Structures are given as structure tokens and as C-alpha cells.
Amino acid sequence: MARDERALLLEVHQALPEEQFQSLKFLLEGQIPAGLLLPASRPELCRILLQRFPGNSLRVTAGILRQLGRLDLIQHFQLPLEEQIPEETPREPNRDTPKLRGDPTSGCRPGGIPDPPVNPRRLAEKDLMQIAQRLGKEWQEVGILHLGLERSRLEQIQEENPGNPVLWNFEMLREWWRRERHKATVSQLRSCLEPARLDPGILDFLQSLQGN
Q1: Hey, which residues does 10 pair with through a beta bridge?
Q2: Quick check: is 159 in a domain?
Q3: The domain containing residue 58 runs over which residues?
Q4: For the DED domain, which residue ranges apply (predicted)?
Q5: CA distance linking residue 48 with residue 179, whole number of Å
Q6: In a domain, 175, yes or no
Q7: SS3 assignment, position 205
């Protein structure tokens, strides 16, 4: 059984493009020390997972693949999945005190335009990864002008994830997501990104999430 698990795990890792393989390692950092993960090749990462999660490495990998939006690989390799953990129920915003985008608590940066009504669909980390994969080279402009993040934090993100633009985008979005907490909804992010110079497909993707 262990041998089958090892072979299947390697097949899964080999099916990932390089950027997604690096993203897989990044998302494992909460469970495995970064010093082991960062230099690991695909076979080495398989060995680490088998040692750290004996008999459970496929389930752990499937959980990360779900965050990456690779449900196709989970289905193709018939990987086991934990039950979906319900997302935090968002609190109802106080409609008596509408916030402006210039307000640091509003979730967006300048403009002085009231935010639209909040969609209760809160973004999940897998949504952020899918958006990150669609963002282009203007990520720092988006972070500073439209998400209200500090340039120094964006430079730190870049240093911590050398040569991986998808992770730069993901960490930038996650920084905003953590700051906004229950207000980090699909509609809130869409209103933040609408004025940005982005591929229209990103707004279309967010619109599709609103319907979910």
C-alpha cells in the first residue's frame, strides 16, 4: 500500500505545472518547515509528505490541490478529501454608516465613492489563488492604489517568494483578505479592482463567483 501511495503521489506532483508545484509547497508551509520545502524537488517532496503524514499524504495533498483549484486532478487520481470546512459566516454590515473608499476601514483605497452593498459570499483562499493566476504584472500598482497595501509589504512578499509572480499576487490578495476579515467578500474585491487596469476576465471571474 505504501508503495502505491508513493507512486500515486509522485504522479500527482508530476502533473502540476512548475508554478503550481511551487504554490503547493508554499501552501504546505503551515504544516512542514519552509527550510525542508523550498529546495525540495518533486520526488523529495513526496518523500517528505510520506514521512510526515504516513498513510495520509494523499489526503493532505488533495486538500492543497483544492485550494489551488485543481479539482480535476483530485477527480482524475481519485484522491481522498476531508469534509469541507464551513467558511466563517460573515457579519451583516451596519447599513446606517456607509463607508467611503477613502476610509481605511472600507476595504478599498481612494475615490470617495460609497461601496456597493456587500455580497455575503466571502472569498476563500482557493478563490484568491485562482484570481492570483489571472493577475498580470501590475500587481504592485493594484496592491498600492486599489487594495491600500504598503509598498514595503509588497517588496517583502516579492523577496520571500523569489521568481514566482503567482505567489506575489496570492500573498498580496491574502494580505488584503486577512485585513478585511468578514468584509473580504467577492463584491468588495470586485469594487476595489474595477478601476484598476486589469484583464476584464478577472472581473468576469469575480462576477461568476458572486453567483455561487
Answers
A1: none
A2: yes
A3: 5-77
A4: 4-79
A5: 33
A6: yes
A7: helix
Are 64 and 142 part of one and the same domain?
no
d(CA 191, CA 160): 29
User: 62, 77, 92: which is the final residue of a domain?
Assistant: 77
- The model's pLDDT over 108-163, given as tens digits with 9 standing for 90+, comes to 655 444 444 444 578 888 888 888 888 877 788 888 888 888 888 899 988 888 88
**Within a 10 A sphere around the Cβ of 48, how many other Cβ atoms?**
18
Q: Locate cell 490541490: which residue? A: 65
CA dihedral for 189, 191, 196, 197, sign (positive or negative): positive
**Which is nearest to 88 in space by CA: 180, 157, 152?**
180
Q: Identify the domain boundary among 77, 95, 110.
A: 77
In this structure, what DSSP letter does residue 114 have? Answer: B
- 12: number of Cβ within 10 Å: 23
